[in-house]
Write a structure and sequence with these properties.
The protein is built from 13 helices and no strands. By secondary structure, it is mainly alpha-helical. The chain has one domain.
Length: 321
């Protein structure tokens, strides 16, 4: 999701997914404290599971898959299993032509993000994808014709500075063993994720569970010819791993996040979900020994600061309303 301005009724700008909760179940100021606490726990659990993506992508279990094909193949399998686990939650499927650019953006985002993670560090991939809110904001202020506020300048500058630092250092060739192509794909994933969020905004009146399942299943369908032509067939162990990748890392977290949104406002959920890009590089470092470069940590910190400033301002505005 999401990875993607302020939380809209159907989505949030950031790593978080669309809101699967019905409008009647949205949190109110009268939500009991115990339910708010349970809602926060569900959101944090979703972020924790989302943060496991690097553990799957960097796993040595897939070392026999060609590196140039691994990202697309993982995107196919993850989308397939995630879509299947989300399908039973669909209630009101309805065709809308705006679904087409959304699912195409989603498919491209998955390809770019997972290929990025196979070619560069997990930290580079996740933090560059987390630039999605910047592109959504820029779209809103230009083509979306929304009026920008002065307070938006700080988050925007933080995000652009962080992104610029990562790109400048990587393009300077300062990192041994990583590919600039991976960095470019990570940035492309963020831009395409913004396209997904914009599509979800335009489709906010549709069944959100249908939109999320459609994103995954259409992505799997579009990538299936690539899988068929690849001649790479997973072993039983690999099949179990990619099934867990789709179900545990992607499908189940969407459902947990939806349950949390019954009792937690979208802006608060967005802040809690920011634990995902913080934890993901940590898990990869602990499991596989991949250490982010200092500029990735510094750039990611700037992007994180910008996102926190943006969502915190939204929360203050909501509390003042």
């Amino acid at each position: 999701m999401a990875e993607a301005g302020s939380p809209a009724p159907a989505t949030m700008e950031g790593r978080g997914p669309p809101n699967l909760a019905p409008a009647s179940a949205m949190p109110t100021a009268e939500s009991p404290p115990q339910r708010r606490l349970a809602g926060r726990a569900h959101v944090l659990a979703a972020a924790l599971l989302w943060s496991s993506s690097g553990l799957f992508v960097k796993s040595h279990l897939f070392d026999d898959w060609p590196l140039d094909q691994r990202g697309v193949l993982l995107a196919f399998w993850r989308a397939l299993f995630a879509g299947l686990v989300l399908l039973p939650w669909v209630r009101r499927p309805r065709w809308n032509w705006r679904i087409v650019p959304m699912v195409l953006s989603f498919t491209g985002m998955n390809i770019c993000f997972l290929k990025s993670m196979t070619l560069t560090t997990a930290a580079n991939a996740i933090w560059l994808q987390c630039t999605a809110p910047l592109w959504v904001f820029l779209w809103a202020c230009t083509l979306g014709k929304e009026r920008a506020k002065l307070a938006d300048a700080i988050p925007l500058c933080c995000g652009l500075l962080g992104t610029g630092l990562i790109l400048a250092m990587e393009f300077a060739g300062a990192t041994a063993g990583t590919s600039t192509a991976g960095v470019v794909l990570g940035l492309a994933a963020g831009i395409l994720y913004a396209g997904v969020v914009i599509g979800l905004r335009r489709l906010r009146g549709e069944d959100a569970a249908f939109l999320v399942a459609a994103n995954h299943l259409v992505a799997a369908a579009l990538l299936s010819p690539y899988y068929a032509a690849s001649a790479v067939h997973p072993s039983l162990g690999q099949l179990a791993a990619v099934a867990a990748f789709g179900v545990v890392q992607m499908g189940v977290p969407y459902l947990l996040f939806a349950r949390g949104l019954h009792h937690v406002p979208g802006h608060e959920a967005a802040l809690l979900a920011l634990t995902e890009p913080v934890l993901m590089p940590l898990w990869v470092w602990l499991a596989w020994g991949e250490r982010p470069a200092w500029w990735t940590l510094a750039g990611g910190g700037l992007i994180l600061a910008g996102l926190i400033a943006r969502y915190a301002r939204r929360e203050r505005e909501a509390n003042a309303a």
